[in-house]
# Entry
Amino acid sequence: MKLWRWLAPDVGIDLGTANTLVYTQNKGVTAQEPSVVAVDGQKKVLAVGNTAKQMLGRTPGHITACRPLRYGVIADFDLTVDMLRHFLNPRPGRRRLLRPHCMIGVPSGVTGVERRAIQDAALQAGAQEVQVLEEPLLAAIGAGLPVKEPVGSMVVDIGGGTTDVAVVSLGGIVTSRSLRVAGDEIDEAIIQWVRRRHNLLIGPRTAEAVKIAIGSAYEPETGAIAHACGRDLYNGMPRVVTLTAEEVHTALAKSTRAIVTCARQTLENAPPELAADIVDRGIWLTGGGALLRGLDRLMAAETGMTVHLAEDPLLCVVKGTARVMEDASLRPKSPHIA
# Structure
């Protein structure tokens, strides 16, 4: 291996609304943490990732824990720079001799300004060069789909802030749609349901725990329950309610139907030959949101297609960056490089 590659290995980043994953060349996935930053009143970073997530909703007045990205794009530029700096150089006491080359996945629906903001944030965080590729293409590559061949492959990448649906062929995206309904929106649906039906205010972490425990997109598990603790909206006192899988399924129905509708609309826009390929090969689900119980069965029932859940769906995008960095032939003809 060349010495400069050892001193400054390429880095692939899945910069997600909910989680950030980092692949370092020759080391594998070196970071998989929530996209959360905690700062004090002077904007000094106190914690990043798992430690910062533990602070969400539990900080005193002089500390703020927040997510610097929303819907897959930057909401707070300075905090995003601080977070990326932490992931690019997890040992701040040791300075790199050379700055790394970075590849970052972004939602397919981002604007040029939003794309440029991500590039600038990575450059300020310590990257020498930044290449930005669309997440559904990276997810297809990471899932092992034959993206370079003249056949159609369809991927539905469900993250924390966005759902990206794309039909891929010959190393590029033929048609795609991006929807701002994903993991965070599903959590919010549970929060609003509990508020309306039980007059109880719960936090995002509690809603996420309920989703993981008993959430389902297709047929809820009979008899499954989960407990949610929050603040009573009538008297302000803490209270615990018992939620059933059936009512959580009802709460999630609008969000899951929106994801399926987005997939159907993408199929309708696909060229006939590629649509025929998808009938034969099926639809692939990637991203952390794809782990919701029954989502593959719901999409199969609504589209009439075979639906596959990718192996390690949460890692598909970051694995895609790894494969692109190792195989230059997988890079699009017109890459976006800063």
